[in-house]
Design goal:
The chain is of the alpha+beta class. The protein has 21 helices and eight strands. It has helices at residues 4-11, 15-32, 46-56, 63-93, 97-122, 126-136, 140-153, 161-189, 193-207, 229-233, 274-280, 357-367, 371-374, 379-394, 409-424, 436-458, 462-466, 470-495, 501-511, 515-525, 529-556; strands spanning 211-217, 240-246, 249-251, 264-270, 298-303, 325-332, 335-337, 350-355. Helix 8 packs antiparallel against helix 19 (501-511) and helix 15 (409-424) packs antiparallel against helix 21.
Length: 557
Protein backbone atom coordinates (compact mmCIF):
# COMPACT_ATOMS: atom_id res chain seq x y z
CA UNK A 1 0.00 0.00 0.00
CA UNK A 2 1.24 3.50 -0.87
CA UNK A 3 2.26 5.55 2.22
CA UNK A 4 -0.08 8.42 3.00
CA UNK A 5 2.51 11.11 2.47
CA UNK A 6 3.37 9.70 -0.96
CA UNK A 7 -0.29 9.49 -1.94
CA UNK A 8 -0.78 13.11 -0.88
CA UNK A 9 2.31 14.14 -2.82
CA UNK A 10 0.78 12.87 -6.07
CA UNK A 11 -2.86 13.84 -5.48
CA UNK A 12 -2.85 17.08 -3.47
CA UNK A 13 -2.07 20.20 -5.50
CA UNK A 14 1.21 21.76 -4.40
CA UNK A 15 4.46 23.03 -5.87
CA UNK A 16 6.12 19.66 -5.28
CA UNK A 17 3.21 17.82 -6.92
CA UNK A 18 3.33 20.15 -9.97
CA UNK A 19 7.08 19.58 -10.39
CA UNK A 20 6.61 15.80 -10.17
CA UNK A 21 3.70 15.74 -12.64
CA UNK A 22 5.51 17.88 -15.19
CA UNK A 23 8.68 15.84 -14.74
CA UNK A 24 6.83 12.58 -15.36
CA UNK A 25 4.86 13.92 -18.34
CA UNK A 26 7.89 15.43 -20.08
CA UNK A 27 10.13 12.42 -19.40
CA UNK A 28 7.51 9.94 -20.61
CA UNK A 29 6.79 12.06 -23.69
CA UNK A 30 10.45 12.37 -24.66
CA UNK A 31 11.08 8.65 -24.18
CA UNK A 32 8.00 7.77 -26.24
CA UNK A 33 9.15 10.27 -28.87
CA UNK A 34 12.18 8.11 -29.57
CA UNK A 35 9.94 5.30 -30.83
CA UNK A 36 9.47 5.03 -34.58
CA UNK A 37 6.23 3.88 -36.17
CA UNK A 38 6.60 2.93 -39.85
CA UNK A 39 9.99 4.64 -39.75
CA UNK A 40 8.57 7.91 -38.45
CA UNK A 41 9.07 9.42 -35.01
CA UNK A 42 6.80 12.18 -33.69
CA UNK A 43 9.52 13.34 -31.33
CA UNK A 44 8.67 16.02 -28.79
CA UNK A 45 4.97 15.98 -29.80
CA UNK A 46 4.55 12.90 -27.60
CA UNK A 47 4.81 15.19 -24.57
CA UNK A 48 1.38 16.54 -25.51
CA UNK A 49 -0.15 13.07 -25.58
CA UNK A 50 1.55 12.02 -22.37
CA UNK A 51 -0.10 15.06 -20.76
CA UNK A 52 -3.49 14.10 -22.21
CA UNK A 53 -3.18 10.57 -20.80
CA UNK A 54 -2.13 11.76 -17.33
CA UNK A 55 -4.98 14.29 -17.26
CA UNK A 56 -7.54 11.78 -18.55
CA UNK A 57 -6.79 9.50 -15.61
CA UNK A 58 -7.35 12.31 -13.15
CA UNK A 59 -3.85 13.64 -12.42
CA UNK A 60 -4.31 17.41 -12.14
CA UNK A 61 -2.20 20.42 -11.17
CA UNK A 62 -2.98 23.94 -10.04
CA UNK A 63 -4.72 25.73 -12.93
CA UNK A 64 -2.94 29.04 -12.40
CA UNK A 65 0.45 27.33 -12.37
CA UNK A 66 -0.50 25.31 -15.45
CA UNK A 67 -1.53 28.44 -17.33
CA UNK A 68 1.69 30.24 -16.37
CA UNK A 69 3.93 27.35 -17.44
CA UNK A 70 2.05 27.01 -20.71
CA UNK A 71 2.48 30.67 -21.64
CA UNK A 72 6.03 30.96 -20.28
CA UNK A 73 7.09 27.81 -22.13
CA UNK A 74 5.66 29.21 -25.36
CA UNK A 75 7.47 32.52 -24.82
CA UNK A 76 10.80 30.74 -24.25
CA UNK A 77 10.35 28.59 -27.35
CA UNK A 78 9.41 31.33 -29.82
CA UNK A 79 11.98 33.76 -28.41
CA UNK A 80 14.79 31.22 -28.81
CA UNK A 81 13.57 30.41 -32.34
CA UNK A 82 13.59 34.13 -33.18
CA UNK A 83 17.17 34.59 -31.97
CA UNK A 84 18.36 31.51 -33.87
CA UNK A 85 16.76 32.27 -37.24
CA UNK A 86 16.97 36.07 -37.10
CA UNK A 87 19.85 36.58 -39.56
CA UNK A 88 18.30 34.19 -42.07
CA UNK A 89 14.90 35.80 -41.55
CA UNK A 90 16.09 39.28 -42.51
CA UNK A 91 17.82 37.88 -45.58
CA UNK A 92 14.64 36.01 -46.58
CA UNK A 93 12.51 39.16 -46.40
CA UNK A 94 14.18 40.45 -49.55
CA UNK A 95 13.55 37.24 -51.48
CA UNK A 96 10.71 35.02 -50.30
CA UNK A 97 8.56 37.04 -47.89
CA UNK A 98 5.87 38.08 -50.39
CA UNK A 99 5.34 34.64 -51.92
CA UNK A 100 5.42 32.89 -48.55
CA UNK A 101 2.85 35.25 -47.02
CA UNK A 102 0.60 34.96 -50.07
CA UNK A 103 0.62 31.19 -49.64
CA UNK A 104 -0.09 31.60 -45.91
CA UNK A 105 -3.01 33.90 -46.76
CA UNK A 106 -4.34 31.19 -49.08
CA UNK A 107 -4.09 28.56 -46.34
CA UNK A 108 -5.90 30.75 -43.78
CA UNK A 109 -8.61 31.82 -46.24
CA UNK A 110 -9.28 28.24 -47.35
CA UNK A 111 -9.57 27.11 -43.73
CA UNK A 112 -12.08 29.88 -43.00
CA UNK A 113 -14.07 28.96 -46.13
CA UNK A 114 -14.23 25.29 -45.06
CA UNK A 115 -15.34 26.39 -41.57
CA UNK A 116 -18.20 28.44 -43.05
CA UNK A 117 -19.31 25.52 -45.24
CA UNK A 118 -19.27 23.13 -42.27
CA UNK A 119 -21.21 25.70 -40.20
CA UNK A 120 -23.94 25.89 -42.84
CA UNK A 121 -24.11 22.11 -43.20
CA UNK A 122 -23.89 21.11 -39.53
CA UNK A 123 -26.03 23.89 -37.99
CA UNK A 124 -23.51 24.19 -35.13
CA UNK A 125 -23.32 27.52 -33.31
CA UNK A 126 -20.79 29.77 -35.08
CA UNK A 127 -19.00 30.45 -31.78
CA UNK A 128 -18.44 26.71 -31.34
CA UNK A 129 -17.23 26.52 -34.96
CA UNK A 130 -14.74 29.30 -34.20
CA UNK A 131 -13.46 27.12 -31.33
CA UNK A 132 -13.21 24.13 -33.70
CA UNK A 133 -11.28 26.23 -36.24
CA UNK A 134 -8.91 27.68 -33.64
CA UNK A 135 -8.20 24.24 -32.19
CA UNK A 136 -7.70 22.60 -35.56
CA UNK A 137 -4.99 25.15 -36.43
CA UNK A 138 -3.63 25.17 -32.83
CA UNK A 139 -4.18 28.92 -32.50
CA UNK A 140 -4.87 29.88 -28.88
CA UNK A 141 -5.08 33.66 -29.54
CA UNK A 142 -7.80 32.91 -32.10
CA UNK A 143 -9.75 31.10 -29.37
CA UNK A 144 -9.28 34.04 -27.01
CA UNK A 145 -10.44 36.45 -29.75
CA UNK A 146 -13.56 34.33 -30.39
CA UNK A 147 -14.38 34.23 -26.67
CA UNK A 148 -13.90 38.00 -26.39
CA UNK A 149 -16.16 38.60 -29.39
CA UNK A 150 -18.86 36.37 -27.89
CA UNK A 151 -18.65 38.26 -24.60
CA UNK A 152 -18.55 41.77 -26.07
CA UNK A 153 -21.33 41.18 -28.59
CA UNK A 154 -23.48 39.13 -26.18
CA UNK A 155 -23.75 36.27 -28.65
CA UNK A 156 -26.16 33.54 -27.54
CA UNK A 157 -24.38 30.25 -26.82
CA UNK A 158 -26.13 27.43 -24.95
CA UNK A 159 -22.98 26.68 -22.97
CA UNK A 160 -20.03 29.09 -23.35
CA UNK A 161 -17.64 26.37 -22.18
CA UNK A 162 -18.42 24.49 -25.41
CA UNK A 163 -16.13 26.90 -27.30
CA UNK A 164 -13.18 25.91 -25.12
CA UNK A 165 -14.21 22.26 -25.21
CA UNK A 166 -14.35 22.25 -29.02
CA UNK A 167 -10.91 23.86 -29.06
CA UNK A 168 -9.48 21.34 -26.56
CA UNK A 169 -10.83 18.33 -28.48
CA UNK A 170 -9.57 19.47 -31.89
CA UNK A 171 -6.22 20.85 -30.72
CA UNK A 172 -4.37 17.50 -30.33
CA UNK A 173 -5.66 16.26 -33.68
CA UNK A 174 -4.70 19.65 -35.12
CA UNK A 175 -1.09 18.99 -34.13
CA UNK A 176 -1.22 15.52 -35.63
CA UNK A 177 -3.00 16.83 -38.73
CA UNK A 178 -0.25 19.33 -39.49
CA UNK A 179 2.46 16.73 -38.92
CA UNK A 180 0.48 14.22 -40.99
CA UNK A 181 0.19 16.75 -43.84
CA UNK A 182 3.97 17.27 -43.75
CA UNK A 183 4.61 13.52 -43.90
CA UNK A 184 2.02 13.01 -46.64
CA UNK A 185 3.55 15.77 -48.77
CA UNK A 186 6.97 14.20 -48.21
CA UNK A 187 5.53 10.98 -49.65
CA UNK A 188 3.75 12.74 -52.54
CA UNK A 189 6.87 14.67 -53.52
CA UNK A 190 9.13 11.62 -53.09
CA UNK A 191 11.46 13.65 -50.90
CA UNK A 192 14.71 12.20 -49.58
CA UNK A 193 16.03 14.29 -46.70
CA UNK A 194 19.68 13.83 -47.71
CA UNK A 195 18.99 14.93 -51.30
CA UNK A 196 16.95 17.89 -50.08
CA UNK A 197 19.80 18.96 -47.81
CA UNK A 198 22.20 18.82 -50.76
CA UNK A 199 19.71 20.83 -52.84
CA UNK A 200 19.62 23.51 -50.15
CA UNK A 201 23.38 23.56 -50.00
CA UNK A 202 23.50 24.32 -53.73
CA UNK A 203 20.62 26.79 -53.55
CA UNK A 204 22.34 28.51 -50.65
CA UNK A 205 25.35 29.22 -52.84
CA UNK A 206 23.18 30.59 -55.66
CA UNK A 207 20.66 32.53 -53.58
CA UNK A 208 22.97 33.95 -50.97
CA UNK A 209 25.09 35.76 -53.55
CA UNK A 210 28.04 34.87 -51.36
CA UNK A 211 31.24 36.86 -51.77
CA UNK A 212 33.80 35.51 -54.21
CA UNK A 213 37.39 36.56 -54.82
CA UNK A 214 38.99 37.49 -58.15
CA UNK A 215 42.49 38.61 -59.23
CA UNK A 216 42.36 41.62 -61.58
CA UNK A 217 45.20 43.45 -63.33
CA UNK A 218 44.87 47.24 -63.27
CA UNK A 219 44.79 48.61 -66.84
CA UNK A 220 42.15 51.36 -66.53
CA UNK A 221 43.98 54.64 -67.25
CA UNK A 222 41.36 56.58 -65.28
CA UNK A 223 42.34 54.77 -62.08
CA UNK A 224 46.12 54.84 -62.48
CA UNK A 225 47.53 57.52 -60.19
CA UNK A 226 44.29 57.68 -58.20
CA UNK A 227 43.88 56.54 -54.57
CA UNK A 228 42.29 53.11 -54.08
CA UNK A 229 39.23 54.73 -52.51
CA UNK A 230 38.34 56.09 -55.98
CA UNK A 231 37.54 52.51 -57.07
CA UNK A 232 35.26 52.06 -54.06
CA UNK A 233 33.43 55.30 -54.91
CA UNK A 234 32.69 54.09 -58.45
CA UNK A 235 30.89 50.93 -57.25
CA UNK A 236 27.30 50.57 -56.06
CA UNK A 237 28.07 47.89 -53.47
CA UNK A 238 30.97 47.50 -51.03
CA UNK A 239 34.00 45.44 -52.02
CA UNK A 240 37.23 44.56 -50.23
CA UNK A 241 40.74 44.55 -51.69
CA UNK A 242 42.29 41.92 -49.43
CA UNK A 243 45.72 41.73 -51.09
CA UNK A 244 47.52 43.73 -53.72
CA UNK A 245 50.69 43.29 -55.76
CA UNK A 246 52.13 46.80 -55.78
CA UNK A 247 55.69 47.87 -56.63
CA UNK A 248 56.99 44.27 -56.56
CA UNK A 249 55.50 43.63 -53.11
CA UNK A 250 52.36 41.89 -51.83
CA UNK A 251 50.59 44.15 -49.34
CA UNK A 252 47.24 44.79 -47.65
CA UNK A 253 46.37 48.21 -49.13
CA UNK A 254 44.74 51.18 -47.44
CA UNK A 255 42.11 53.34 -49.17
CA UNK A 256 44.71 56.12 -49.61
CA UNK A 257 47.21 53.95 -51.53
CA UNK A 258 47.99 55.41 -54.99
CA UNK A 259 47.29 52.87 -57.72
CA UNK A 260 49.92 52.10 -60.37
CA UNK A 261 49.69 50.48 -63.79
CA UNK A 262 49.79 46.65 -63.76
CA UNK A 263 48.98 46.44 -60.05
CA UNK A 264 47.21 43.15 -59.30
CA UNK A 265 44.25 43.41 -56.94
CA UNK A 266 42.70 40.47 -55.12
CA UNK A 267 39.14 41.70 -54.69
CA UNK A 268 36.38 40.14 -52.58
CA UNK A 269 32.90 41.06 -53.83
CA UNK A 270 29.43 39.67 -54.44
CA UNK A 271 29.06 37.57 -57.59
CA UNK A 272 27.02 40.07 -59.57
CA UNK A 273 29.64 42.77 -58.92
CA UNK A 274 32.43 40.86 -60.68
CA UNK A 275 31.54 41.96 -64.23
CA UNK A 276 31.52 45.64 -63.22
CA UNK A 277 34.90 45.21 -61.55
CA UNK A 278 36.41 43.74 -64.68
CA UNK A 279 35.20 46.74 -66.66
CA UNK A 280 36.50 49.22 -64.08
CA UNK A 281 39.85 47.61 -63.22
CA UNK A 282 40.98 45.34 -66.03
CA UNK A 283 41.23 41.70 -67.09
CA UNK A 284 41.77 38.70 -64.78
CA UNK A 285 45.36 38.09 -63.76
CA UNK A 286 47.12 34.73 -63.67
CA UNK A 287 49.03 35.83 -60.58
CA UNK A 288 47.70 34.09 -57.44
CA UNK A 289 48.45 36.34 -54.48
CA UNK A 290 47.09 33.77 -52.00
CA UNK A 291 49.55 31.11 -53.10
CA UNK A 292 52.58 33.39 -53.41
CA UNK A 293 55.41 31.89 -51.34
CA UNK A 294 57.28 35.15 -50.89
CA UNK A 295 54.28 36.83 -49.24
CA UNK A 296 54.38 37.67 -45.53
CA UNK A 297 50.60 37.92 -45.36
CA UNK A 298 48.50 35.43 -43.41
CA UNK A 299 44.79 34.61 -43.39
CA UNK A 300 42.88 33.86 -40.17
CA UNK A 301 39.27 33.38 -39.01
CA UNK A 302 38.62 35.50 -35.90
CA UNK A 303 35.54 35.25 -33.66
CA UNK A 304 33.93 38.46 -32.43
CA UNK A 305 33.66 38.16 -28.64
CA UNK A 306 34.35 41.73 -27.45
CA UNK A 307 31.06 43.52 -26.87
CA UNK A 308 32.80 46.89 -27.18
CA UNK A 309 33.28 46.54 -30.97
CA UNK A 310 29.60 45.75 -31.59
CA UNK A 311 28.12 49.11 -30.61
CA UNK A 312 29.67 51.31 -33.32
CA UNK A 313 29.97 51.21 -37.09
CA UNK A 314 33.05 49.49 -38.42
CA UNK A 315 34.04 52.74 -40.10
CA UNK A 316 33.99 54.61 -36.78
CA UNK A 317 36.52 52.35 -35.03
CA UNK A 318 40.14 53.33 -35.82
CA UNK A 319 41.52 50.19 -34.13
CA UNK A 320 39.81 48.12 -36.83
CA UNK A 321 41.45 50.04 -39.70
CA UNK A 322 45.16 49.44 -39.27
CA UNK A 323 47.65 49.23 -42.14
CA UNK A 324 48.68 45.67 -41.33
CA UNK A 325 45.38 43.84 -41.76
CA UNK A 326 42.15 43.86 -43.78
CA UNK A 327 38.74 42.35 -43.08
CA UNK A 328 37.81 40.35 -46.18
CA UNK A 329 34.66 38.37 -45.28
CA UNK A 330 32.13 38.16 -42.49
CA UNK A 331 30.10 35.07 -41.61
CA UNK A 332 26.95 35.53 -39.53
CA UNK A 333 24.83 32.45 -38.75
CA UNK A 334 25.99 30.78 -41.97
CA UNK A 335 25.44 33.86 -44.16
CA UNK A 336 28.57 35.32 -45.76
CA UNK A 337 28.87 39.02 -46.58
CA UNK A 338 31.44 41.64 -47.53
CA UNK A 339 32.45 43.84 -44.55
CA UNK A 340 32.04 47.59 -45.00
CA UNK A 341 32.18 50.78 -42.96
CA UNK A 342 28.44 51.05 -42.31
CA UNK A 343 28.21 47.54 -40.87
CA UNK A 344 27.78 46.72 -37.18
CA UNK A 345 29.47 43.60 -35.89
CA UNK A 346 27.59 41.17 -33.64
CA UNK A 347 28.81 38.78 -30.98
CA UNK A 348 29.40 35.39 -32.58
CA UNK A 349 30.32 36.81 -36.00
CA UNK A 350 33.32 35.20 -37.66
CA UNK A 351 35.57 37.62 -39.55
CA UNK A 352 38.17 36.52 -42.09
CA UNK A 353 41.26 38.70 -41.72
CA UNK A 354 44.26 39.01 -44.05
CA UNK A 355 47.41 40.70 -42.79
CA UNK A 356 50.89 40.41 -41.39
CA UNK A 357 51.60 38.41 -38.24
CA UNK A 358 51.53 41.62 -36.21
CA UNK A 359 48.34 42.76 -37.96
CA UNK A 360 46.58 39.47 -37.24
CA UNK A 361 47.51 39.80 -33.59
CA UNK A 362 46.12 43.35 -33.47
CA UNK A 363 42.88 42.24 -35.12
CA UNK A 364 42.56 39.31 -32.72
CA UNK A 365 43.04 41.60 -29.73
CA UNK A 366 40.46 44.06 -31.09
CA UNK A 367 37.79 41.43 -31.85
CA UNK A 368 38.35 39.15 -28.86
CA UNK A 369 38.43 35.64 -30.36
CA UNK A 370 37.65 34.08 -26.96
CA UNK A 371 35.24 31.17 -27.41
CA UNK A 372 35.09 30.75 -23.64
CA UNK A 373 33.45 34.18 -23.34
CA UNK A 374 30.59 33.15 -25.61
CA UNK A 375 29.98 29.88 -23.79
CA UNK A 376 28.56 31.81 -20.82
CA UNK A 377 25.22 33.30 -21.97
CA UNK A 378 24.30 36.76 -20.77
CA UNK A 379 20.77 36.22 -19.45
CA UNK A 380 19.99 39.87 -18.70
CA UNK A 381 19.50 40.96 -22.36
CA UNK A 382 17.53 37.77 -23.07
CA UNK A 383 15.03 38.43 -20.28
CA UNK A 384 14.87 42.11 -21.18
CA UNK A 385 14.00 41.05 -24.73
CA UNK A 386 11.29 38.74 -23.38
CA UNK A 387 9.86 41.66 -21.36
CA UNK A 388 9.76 43.83 -24.49
CA UNK A 389 8.16 40.96 -26.41
CA UNK A 390 5.40 40.48 -23.86
CA UNK A 391 4.71 44.24 -23.86
CA UNK A 392 4.51 44.26 -27.67
CA UNK A 393 2.25 41.22 -27.63
CA UNK A 394 -0.10 42.95 -25.18
CA UNK A 395 -0.61 46.12 -27.24
CA UNK A 396 -4.21 46.26 -28.58
CA UNK A 397 -4.54 47.10 -32.28
CA UNK A 398 -7.93 48.40 -33.38
CA UNK A 399 -9.26 47.79 -36.88
CA UNK A 400 -12.32 49.46 -38.44
CA UNK A 401 -15.60 47.59 -37.86
CA UNK A 402 -13.89 45.06 -35.57
CA UNK A 403 -15.22 45.64 -32.02
CA UNK A 404 -12.50 43.58 -30.33
CA UNK A 405 -8.87 44.72 -30.29
CA UNK A 406 -6.32 42.46 -31.98
CA UNK A 407 -3.17 41.50 -30.07
CA UNK A 408 -0.08 39.62 -31.22
CA UNK A 409 -0.18 37.66 -27.98
CA UNK A 410 2.45 35.87 -25.94
CA UNK A 411 3.89 34.18 -29.01
CA UNK A 412 3.78 36.88 -31.68
CA UNK A 413 5.26 39.71 -29.60
CA UNK A 414 8.34 37.84 -28.27
CA UNK A 415 9.01 36.35 -31.72
CA UNK A 416 9.03 39.76 -33.42
CA UNK A 417 11.23 41.28 -30.71
CA UNK A 418 13.67 38.35 -30.91
CA UNK A 419 13.91 38.70 -34.69
CA UNK A 420 14.52 42.43 -34.32
CA UNK A 421 17.12 42.13 -31.55
CA UNK A 422 18.97 39.39 -33.44
CA UNK A 423 19.91 42.11 -35.92
CA UNK A 424 19.68 45.45 -34.11
CA UNK A 425 20.08 44.51 -30.44
CA UNK A 426 23.73 45.49 -30.27
CA UNK A 427 22.80 49.11 -31.06
CA UNK A 428 20.89 49.21 -27.76
CA UNK A 429 23.51 47.23 -25.81
CA UNK A 430 21.23 44.17 -25.85
CA UNK A 431 23.49 41.44 -27.17
CA UNK A 432 21.26 38.36 -27.29
CA UNK A 433 23.89 35.95 -28.56
CA UNK A 434 23.60 32.35 -27.36
CA UNK A 435 25.55 29.31 -28.45
CA UNK A 436 23.67 26.71 -30.50
CA UNK A 437 23.59 24.32 -27.56
CA UNK A 438 22.24 26.97 -25.15
CA UNK A 439 19.63 28.07 -27.67
CA UNK A 440 18.55 24.47 -28.26
CA UNK A 441 18.21 23.90 -24.51
CA UNK A 442 15.92 26.95 -24.16
CA UNK A 443 13.84 25.85 -27.15
CA UNK A 444 13.42 22.28 -25.94
CA UNK A 445 12.59 23.36 -22.40
CA UNK A 446 10.03 25.88 -23.64
CA UNK A 447 8.22 23.57 -26.05
CA UNK A 448 8.20 20.74 -23.46
CA UNK A 449 6.54 22.97 -20.85
CA UNK A 450 4.04 24.24 -23.40
CA UNK A 451 3.02 20.81 -24.71
CA UNK A 452 2.81 19.27 -21.22
CA UNK A 453 0.56 22.14 -20.11
CA UNK A 454 -1.76 21.83 -23.11
CA UNK A 455 -2.08 18.08 -22.52
CA UNK A 456 -2.65 18.37 -18.77
CA UNK A 457 -5.23 21.09 -19.31
CA UNK A 458 -7.25 19.23 -21.96
CA UNK A 459 -7.34 15.54 -21.08
CA UNK A 460 -10.06 15.78 -18.43
CA UNK A 461 -12.45 17.30 -21.00
CA UNK A 462 -12.35 14.28 -23.29
CA UNK A 463 -15.11 12.23 -21.57
CA UNK A 464 -17.50 15.21 -21.64
CA UNK A 465 -16.87 15.89 -25.31
CA UNK A 466 -17.45 12.29 -26.38
CA UNK A 467 -20.40 11.53 -24.08
CA UNK A 468 -22.95 12.49 -26.73
CA UNK A 469 -20.79 12.02 -29.83
CA UNK A 470 -20.19 15.73 -30.49
CA UNK A 471 -16.45 15.26 -29.95
CA UNK A 472 -16.19 12.93 -32.94
CA UNK A 473 -18.04 15.43 -35.13
CA UNK A 474 -15.75 18.23 -34.03
CA UNK A 475 -12.68 16.09 -34.69
CA UNK A 476 -13.91 15.20 -38.19
CA UNK A 477 -14.53 18.86 -39.02
CA UNK A 478 -11.22 19.86 -37.46
CA UNK A 479 -9.29 17.38 -39.61
CA UNK A 480 -10.86 18.85 -42.76
CA UNK A 481 -10.05 22.41 -41.65
CA UNK A 482 -6.48 21.39 -40.83
CA UNK A 483 -5.44 19.06 -43.61
CA UNK A 484 -7.22 20.22 -46.78
CA UNK A 485 -5.71 23.77 -46.94
CA UNK A 486 -2.23 22.47 -46.03
CA UNK A 487 -2.19 19.76 -48.68
CA UNK A 488 -3.69 22.05 -51.34
CA UNK A 489 -1.28 24.92 -50.82
CA UNK A 490 1.65 22.61 -50.10
CA UNK A 491 1.22 21.23 -53.63
CA UNK A 492 0.71 24.74 -55.06
CA UNK A 493 3.87 25.95 -53.29
CA UNK A 494 5.87 23.08 -54.77
CA UNK A 495 4.45 23.13 -58.29
CA UNK A 496 3.95 26.82 -59.00
CA UNK A 497 6.21 28.64 -56.53
CA UNK A 498 9.10 26.15 -56.70
CA UNK A 499 9.39 25.98 -52.90
CA UNK A 500 11.58 23.26 -51.46
CA UNK A 501 10.19 20.68 -49.06
CA UNK A 502 12.07 22.27 -46.14
CA UNK A 503 10.51 25.66 -46.92
CA UNK A 504 7.06 24.07 -47.25
CA UNK A 505 7.46 22.47 -43.79
CA UNK A 506 8.07 25.89 -42.26
CA UNK A 507 5.23 27.40 -44.30
CA UNK A 508 2.72 24.80 -43.07
CA UNK A 509 3.83 25.11 -39.42
CA UNK A 510 3.90 28.92 -39.58
CA UNK A 511 0.54 29.29 -41.32
CA UNK A 512 -0.92 27.13 -38.54
CA UNK A 513 1.03 29.06 -35.86
CA UNK A 514 2.01 25.64 -34.52
CA UNK A 515 5.25 25.38 -32.48
CA UNK A 516 5.04 21.54 -32.09
CA UNK A 517 4.87 21.15 -35.88
CA UNK A 518 7.88 23.45 -36.22
CA UNK A 519 9.79 21.39 -33.66
CA UNK A 520 8.87 18.22 -35.58
CA UNK A 521 9.86 19.74 -38.95
CA UNK A 522 13.21 20.93 -37.59
CA UNK A 523 13.98 17.44 -36.25
CA UNK A 524 12.77 15.76 -39.46
CA UNK A 525 14.88 17.97 -41.73
CA UNK A 526 17.78 18.53 -39.32
CA UNK A 527 17.82 22.11 -40.59
CA UNK A 528 16.93 25.67 -39.55
CA UNK A 529 15.31 26.38 -42.93
CA UNK A 530 11.77 25.49 -41.71
CA UNK A 531 12.30 27.88 -38.78
CA UNK A 532 13.26 30.73 -41.12
CA UNK A 533 10.13 30.25 -43.26
CA UNK A 534 8.03 29.84 -40.11
CA UNK A 535 9.31 33.16 -38.77
CA UNK A 536 8.63 34.85 -42.13
CA UNK A 537 4.91 33.99 -42.17
CA UNK A 538 4.13 33.74 -38.45
CA UNK A 539 3.43 37.44 -37.58
CA UNK A 540 1.14 37.97 -40.59
CA UNK A 541 -0.62 34.64 -40.05
CA UNK A 542 -1.16 35.31 -36.34
CA UNK A 543 -3.02 38.54 -37.14
CA UNK A 544 -5.06 36.76 -39.83
CA UNK A 545 -6.04 33.94 -37.47
CA UNK A 546 -7.15 36.34 -34.73
CA UNK A 547 -9.15 38.55 -37.10
CA UNK A 548 -10.67 35.52 -38.87
CA UNK A 549 -12.07 34.07 -35.63
CA UNK A 550 -13.69 37.41 -34.79
CA UNK A 551 -15.07 38.04 -38.28
CA UNK A 552 -16.76 34.62 -38.31
CA UNK A 553 -18.74 35.56 -35.22
CA UNK A 554 -19.43 39.12 -36.41
CA UNK A 555 -20.83 38.04 -39.77
CA UNK A 556 -22.54 34.76 -38.93
CA UNK A 557 -23.78 35.17 -35.37
Amino acid sequence: MMPGWLHDLFTHTSIAQTVIVYGLVISAGIWLGRLKIAGVSLGITWVLFAGLIFSYFGLETDKNTLHFLKEFGLVLFVYAVGLQVGPGFWASLKKNATSNNLLALGIVSTGVLITVILFLVSKNNIAVMAGVMSGSVTNTPGLAAAQAAVSDLHVSVADPSLITLAYAVTYPLGVFGIIGAILLLKKIFGVTIEKEQELHRKLGVLRANRPVSVHLKLENKLLIGQPLRRLFEMLKEPVVVSRMYHQHEIITPTPDLILAENDVLLIVASRHEIDDLRLLVGPPSELDLKAAKDSSLLSRQILVTRAEVTHRRLGDQPELHQHDFTFTRLNRAGIEMVPHGDMFLQLGDTVKVVGTQEGIQMATKALGNSLKKLEVPDLAPIFMGIVLGVILGSIPFHFPNVPVAVKLGMAGGPLIIALTLSRFGNLFYLNNYTTNSANLMIRELGISLFLASVGLGSGHNLPVAFADGRGWTWIGMGILITVVPLLLFGIIARKYFRKTFFEICGLLAGSSTDPPALAFASKLTNSDIPSVTYATVYPFTMILRIVAAQILILLLM
